[in-house]
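Suppose a colleague, Dr. K., hands you the sequence of a protein chain of 196 amino acids and asks what its three-dimensional shape might be. Before reaching for any lab equipment, you can write down a predicted structure in token form. Begin with the sequence itself:
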Amino acid sequence: MSAYLHNTIPNLKPFDFERHHNSHFINQQWVLVNGITKKKEVYTFRDNNILEIERKDTVIRTSWALSLQNIFTIETEDGTIIVKAYFKDDDILVLNHQDKEEFALYINTTNYSEDLNSIEDIQTYLKEKYKKKVSKVIHKHEFFYISKSKEFGPCTVEELKEKVDNEDISAYCFVRDVNEDSYAKRLRVVDLIQEL
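The predicted structure, expressed as tokens, is then:
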């Protein structure tokens, strides 16, 4: 992966045919984020190496092919381009151009009911997406907390909320995830409760 892409979008995972092809890639509606303010384009990678690019009232049919592991060739209006495919997560696809320091960022809108037509729409989408993700993570995780100079736990967020509601602990007690070694993030019980 080029340093340019890695520095711009950290923690990318290479396209993995077994994991991504059928469930995350084929027949999904990928909105191109680059240039969305000028024109909206929706890419749909179909079986039989057909790529549909939807722009306003037109659909352009072209082709794509998987060459090696995560390297694709895509036919565009400008000719054939070679890209490496990466996922930021299941709904964010990055195609890194192999001949230039350029990449295209896509958001999967297949299961999203609102239209993405602007940067503001994308920000709303990402905010909602990560809020749900954080909420799921918080519900599953356990946390230690400090009260009266002693450490207690681990407890779930629901248990911490109950302790606060019963006035057993302060909502301003510092907490740390069970996987962390310190309270350096300065996270408090009240911060976790807000995400419920």
